[in-house]
Amino acid sequence: MKKPFPETLLNQIRIVMVRTSHSGNIGAAARAMRVMGLYNLVLVEPKQFPSQEAISLASGAVDVLENAIVVPTLEEALKDCHVAYATTARPRYISSKLHTVEEAAVEALQGIKNEGQQIAFVFGTERTGLTNEEIDLCQRMMTIPSENSYNSLNIGAAIQVVSYELHKAHKKTLDLPLIQANEATDELATSEMREGFYKHFQDILFQTEFLDPTEPKNIMKKIRHLFQKRDLTASEIHLLRGVLTSINRKISHD
Amino acid sequence: MKKPFPETLLNQIRIVMVRTSHSGNIGAAARAMRVMGLYNLVLVEPKQFPSQEAISLASGAVDVLENAIVVPTLEEALKDCHVAYATTARPRYISSKLHTVEEAAVEALQGIKNEGQQIAFVFGTERTGLTNEEIDLCQRMMTIPSENSYNSLNIGAAIQVVSYELHKAHKKTLDLPLIQANEATDELATSEMREGFYKHFQDILFQTEFLDPTEPKNIMKKIRHLFQKRDLTASEIHLLRGVLTSINRKISHD
């Protein structure tokens, strides 16, 4: 396979679509894969490929279509593969363990990282799925948990969910944190700043007669609690103090 | 909302699509939702609805389309909602925490189970996503981790991934005992209550001349953000409204 794409563990995964009837689904699959960092698409006996419809539904993922390989049999598609997961709506062999897509994704990434495996996720034709003979060529069976039968899950949507779980498992494998929220840029307020704010707030409440100066405790406790549920930043305290001062001014000068 | 569907915790979740341009995407969303047991679709100003294209792409999920509600504004869509998640490609406020879809789904199901919350997941228009004003109406921001920018993720595929994570979280939630929140007696404020509070707060700031009525936006955004970091409860909103009213009275009568 040519590899014009970033070098990651995900390059050792191929998505195999068997006898796909609708070209649009091949395009949707390419898009679903690419957004999650998967680039290897193998098409077994597609009804039509390449096609304008696939290109149009691939959106920005035309390069995945260009990289796609067409083969005559599933056997050929899996030739150099260590582990293949057959996607199914329900277990057909009672004795076979049915992995969820999440379990399968985690296991696949471990196999790639620890043993350099080549992995395939195999999707059957739209209406009838994989034949028993095709399932026999795979080492594992996998399903996407859902409310109804898998048959209602569009094949593009199924490949989106599988690609998403593989992307998550990849990130976990690399032990990288997911997108870090940049909460650090704004410094937290100091205790002194917070206390100054509560004092100022309380003074306003006395002036507006919202609080009885002889018994402020309970209400002020609630106010504190409300603001302390999360950490106020210095600039937020500054803003709140500005608001209070404007109220002060209005009350005294009017 | 009429509910011809199974009674589950997922019924307290609505998927909100804002100004969707392509009717086909509405159909794909309905299908993606239904297969994962989600039935409540709210459409804010769709370009066209109902439509033949939506029905054709909905496949077996025409009942979700029939159950869909069309409203003129996002505010209306979120009126009785306790927590709304804005879906975004990347954080727009530097200081805002960005939840992954998995975290958001788990949190949402806990909120429903423990506190009976109504939850919304909000998706913007295809090309440009949600406006900053629309994001401001939501309490949380959520993203689907992916290789490229979220923009490449088709909206139907995005709703499939979100629905899939909600379905997983639902299954997990059913397996867990009910967690008693310490503050369980105090309900979270609804979107309507919060918006009423911000409006009132802004009026006060105009009266105290803290805000220039011609350019209130930036400051009000900071105020919103400050309060939205915290989950305000109904009784807290009540308390804050009381404070504002006392200031009103003082300013007008002094």
From TrEMBL, chains A, B:
Reaction it catalyzes: cytidine(32) in tRNA + S-adenosyl-L-methionine = 2'-O-methylcytidine(32) in tRNA + S-adenosyl-L-homocysteine + H(+); uridine(32) in tRNA + S-adenosyl-L-methionine = 2'-O-methyluridine(32) in tRNA + S-adenosyl-L-homocysteine + H(+)
Keywords annotated in UniProt: Cytoplasm, Methyltransferase, S-adenosyl-L-methionine, Transferase, tRNA processing
Domain of life the protein comes from: Bacteria
Location of this chain's protein in the cell: Cytoplasm
Enzyme Commission number, as recorded: 2.1.1.200
InterPro entries (UniProt xref): Alpha/beta_knot_MTases, RNA_MeTrfase_TrmJ/LasT, SpoU_MeTrfase, tRNA_m1G_MTases_N
Quaternary state and interactors: Homodimer.
Family: Belongs to the class IV-like SAM-binding methyltransferase superfamily. RNA methyltransferase TrmH family.
Name the UniProt record assigns to this protein: tRNA (cytidine/uridine-2'-O-)-methyltransferase TrmJ
Gene: trmJ
